[in-house]
Amino acid sequence: SPPPPSRKPNSRLQERLLKKLGQHAHPFYFTIPQNLPCSVTLQPGPEDTGKACGVDFEIRAFCAKSIEEKIHKRNSVRLVIRKVQYAPEKPGPQPMVETTRSFLMSDRSLHLEASLDKELYYHGEPISVNVHVTNNSTKTVKRVKISVRQYADICLFSTAQYKCPVAQLEADDQVSSSSTFCKVYTLTPTLDKNREKRGLALDGKLKHEDTNLASSTIVKDITNKEVLGILVSYRVKVKLVVSRGGDVSVELPFILMHPKPVEPPVSRPQSGEATPQNEGKLPVYFAYLTVCVSILWLRLQGELDDDLTDLSCFHICSLSRKVLVSMKTVR
């Protein structure tokens, strides 16, 4: 029967797969709600076993003769996908913070001002921290400590917060009484130096792929935390170690994300093909699932070879990957 009028037009890839696979291929599309959490995983410790805590998504497809029929694992397939956020096109203002500290039995103070060169950083990009100290007190600043900290608010079964340093720097820069000091420090937070830290938030990954530190979570409406999963944020902490006077510190929030990928140019649609605004919405995932569903449908109809009747879901997925490789020539 013809599709309903409200159905979304098929993409070029879907049209080509339909021609290749025939009547047992069933195109589909879906939209992920904006309020769903991003794919984030908490890094397990070296001795932890079992599945890591985190948020992930998967698409499941199955074949049955009726809706009421029990779904068997051998007649279903699943595909893990990620929900990601990319950096905003317009970053916010340059982070800057200052504080003044007075000491006991002294009417003079120590002033600390710190700033970042920008608010938005991409993964692997160095962070420049500008530190300016005006020491009018009688104390001496002995050292300067700078660290990049990741904060992960866990809003799943219970609420908790993990705080983990991902880059640290300590300098023996001294600021004597009645003097000023100005210097730019550079740190680069990466996963390579933090692979054994338990509870560190990482971007969700697909199988056999490496990942990175979790990207900052950008939330428009933070009132409903029950649907947010794991909220990730970053701050740079600047601390002055003062002799016999305690520490003076400030924090600078910033955003760490991936840039938005550049979309390839869209070719002019031909007769029966999708319009440019619908182009490329479903990548290889659709092809992969279409092949899986086609194989399952053939099994249900008894049209598969006898040698395939005892294959597990994993083997079906492996078979579909091989079929998908041969289909790439259709593009």
UniProtKB/TrEMBL annotation:
InterPro entries: Arrestin, Arrestin-like_C, Arrestin-like_N, Arrestin_C-like, Arrestin_N, Ig_E-set
Coiled-coil segments on the chain, per record: none
Sample GO molecular function, one term: angiotensin receptor binding
Predominant subcellular localization, coarse grouping: cytoplasm
Localization annotation: Cytoplasm
SUPFAM superfamilies to which the protein is assigned, alphabetical: E set domains
Sorted UniProt keywords: Cytoplasm
A single cellular component GO annotation: cytoplasm
Gene Ontology biological process terms from the UniProt entry: G protein-coupled receptor internalization; nervous system development; positive regulation of ERK1 and ERK2 cascade; signal transduction
Annotated Arrestin C-terminal-like domain residues: 106-261
Family: Belongs to the arrestin family.
Protein known as: Arrestin red cell
Organism: Echeneis naucrates (Live sharksucker)
Protein's gene: arrb2a
